[in-house]
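In the current project phase, work has continued on tokenised descriptions of protein folds. One protein thus recorded appears below exactly as we store it.

——
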Amino acid sequence: MSAPWILRRIGRALITLWLLMSFTFVALTLSSEPALQILGPEAGPEAIEAFNRRWGLDRPYWEQYLHHLARLVTFDFGLSYRTSDPALQMVVERIPATLSLMIPTAFLAVAIGVPLGVLAAIRRNTLIDRAAMTFAVVGFAIPNFLVGILLIYLFSVQLGIIQPSGIVDWRSWIMPVLTMASAEAAVFARFSRSAMAEVLGHPMMRTALANGIPWSQAVREHALPNAAIPIVTVAGLFFGSLIGGGVITENVFAWPGLGRMLVDAVSARDYAIVQTIVILVGVTMILANLIVDLAYGWIDPRIRDQRQ
């Protein structure tokens, strides 16, 4: 990869971050009056004025915006309206709980979805293919919250072997991980099958087989590397959403992670917390996209050569 290409990608990433921060600021600042949300509708004008002055909300919007950007440059994400604690510190404290849930989900989704999709493409129009695609359609169609409720009913209500909420022991991870992994594995299976089926029908495969290359070797050395590019794209988007991808599931299982914290902060109009989480999610997505671009060049040298 050439230096100009990398610099262009970094520049686009910075512009994306600026747009994200600007949109978040405008959306949250203009959505409602945080003083009324925090103090309650019975708060008097003096209390509201003191609150706005305390948090700088009495300034013009353009001044608030410039002050907001200046603070973010120095990694000062402000204080929580509710607790007056540093927003970044509060968010960072929730990251381990979210990652402990999302990382097993990611590995389980990839370990199930990709081999299942590849096998379905190799055994196309067979019972294996139909069963795999049925799983993919059902897994993708059922909402996460419904899967979570069904698992709670089965394991907590009927069997009584797992606590339905919070972190109690190692079994607490079973239901939320299965809830998210079922949908993500379905996505990986569908994309893997589509990519693999397209490559298997390519003339290069017929040429490889005509030259006497065994089928298994042709699949391993020619089909899989070419089918990996769209799979890597999906994987990059999924891994980029590890921080904020469990919002619904965390709320269903009362998981003490960023997803639940985000919902609470939005309902309370705690702008500092919401902006911190949104920016953190945006950074992870941008880094994931950059890693995917670099991975393209490693998987397919032709892409790398075009970008020199």
Residues 87-122 form the longest helix (36 residues).
